[in-house]
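example protein:
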Amino acid sequence: MRNESVLSGMKASMPIMASYLALGLACGIVLYDAGFNVLAIFLMSSLVYAGAAQFLAGSMVALGATIPSIILMVFFLNLRHILMSASISKYVKRKPLSYLSVFSHTLSDESFGINYSNFQKDNWTTNEALVTNFFNYSAWVVSTVLGGVVGSQFSINTLIMNYALIAMFLCMMVLQFVSKEHIIAGIVAVVLSILFTVLLKHNIALVLATIIASFVGYYLEKRTVEKGVRIND
């Protein structure tokens, strides 16, 4: 791997790494307060690597939830990774299994947002994408472990971090609004997420809203392309 790819991937990941420092510290503190020791926090971040799911798991453990229910909730919350992986697979499908194994394990919402946007610009390589994933992954693991260490020494109110997480996702969402179709799909996702959450009162609502909004965006983009072809003909 060339030095240019490493530097480019690291540069692209720096904003996310900075946000992970705050969010990871908060997650580590939450997990420690829920009864996880520093080693358990390290293993969870390394093997699960799912920020929102780790916050959820920590909260459920603190509330005395059963292990099967925690696993099920984390599974449903992370179903969105299937959609993200399917979207980005066309850019990495020719890579060997060893690459795909590391890339898929280190893929997160934030890494997906950076890589997908850059792949669409045709100036992004698979090596740069992997480096971006790796640096974000490393930042998350290190910051959660530090959070566990801090949590073992101090008592800190992490309420503000809930808003930091939302703000980060909103910023990333705005960056995806590159066309009318994307904006409409985003609005559909927001409306359906609220509606399904109220009706179903379950995290599966977010998955359903995401799938439906994705099909809406696909249909609109396909119709736009077909109109363009007819005009050119």
